[in-house]
Amino acid sequence: MFIEVALVVVAAATFLKLVVKPQPEIMVETMDPPILTPYFDPPLERVSYGTWPGALVLGWPAKGGLYVLNAVSAVELEFLGYDRFKPVLRPDPADPDTAADEEAHCNKMRYLGADWWESEHAWSEYKRELPPGRLGEIIFATGWPAEGGVWILIDDEEIGGKKHAGMLFNAYTMEERCNIIKQLGGTFYANPKDCPSLDLP
Hints:
Helix content is 32%, strand content 19%. The protein has helices at 2-19, 74-80, 99-111, 120-129, 157-163, 174-183, and strands at residues 45-49, 55-59, 66-72, 88-89, 115-117, 138-143, 150-156, 187-189. The protein has a five-stranded antiparallel β-sheet with strand order 4-1-2-3-5. The longest helix is centred in the first third of the chain and has 18 residues, at 2-19.
């Protein structure tokens, strides 16, 4: 009986050696940490258009980082000094003669409430976290009347939608835009620097 059991064990071990093949040694390679490349591929555009209304305007100030204006209307583009129907390339940042022009462009953006980001990457990460079709949580609109001062409208998207804030895109002139902001319940500042939400130069 003992001999029969031993023969069965030997036979089973031989069978397992035939069936269970040795696995190749797995080599684990160490990987270098990822390199954060710029979010934008050249040529970089100062003013660009997608499939939705309005333009995307970007500015690279001397202090670093990035200024961003989303859904820029025709009236705002005119305020910035740009054609409503043409994209605008970013001037060559390696050319020292363009530095003053870029800074002036950024300063104009600040009058429209541009958001400043510490880097292109920081802004792109924020965009990825937004639900599809959302530009952000806050509606921020400025209007600069000819007689001076500034009109400001600040609402979240839900309240702005109930007020029909999208009619701001129907303004033909800055004066019309100011009137719409007033109609929507905006706030007027006789001295624009008194507005805590504006980062003016």
